[in-house]
Amino acid sequence: TPARAFIPVEERETITIRDGDRAGLISKLEAARRNRLPSRSIKHVLVRIESFGGGSRFATAKDFFETIDFKAPSGFTENLHDKFDILLYYRPDGADVGFVLDPKDHERALAHMLAWENSIILDFRTLYFDKTVTQPQYLFTDTVVRNVDMRTITLQENTTFSYGIFAQRFLVIALSNEFTDVLLGRLLAAPPR
To answer: In the prediction, which pLDDT does 136 show?
Structure first.
């Protein structure tokens, strides 16, 4: 069984995909998102990958980013430990995606994210399921959320993309301001060991 989420969550759900199945990964994440929980709840989504020769394994961070085919900067996935969390945060009118990643070197991870800023929304826009997100007109700005330095870009009303390093250890990514606040709140309330 895979490890627990880095934060306390209300529910876990495992989705199963074939090796390299990008469309399957996105549609199963969308389906997991539609399985509603009460507002302000967080679901931890685990991805099980079935290989063509039989057998299965839980996706590592590298597996996930390679399958979803984001154009991350060179060295980004190699700098991540295997364990990572895909999280869904439920609002009354939908759900937002977020991630907690565990980089080997948090300063390198931040440098990768800064280098990725000019195109990152084109990658992540597939995860704003019920919103049409286009290349933003604005730039990222520095914000402080719960005493954590974050980089945030506003895409449309109530729709943002934020990332930052928590406790000089975790790379936190959240696709709304509300989820950024809740996710950091849970990390602060129960810091992972």
So the answer is: 80
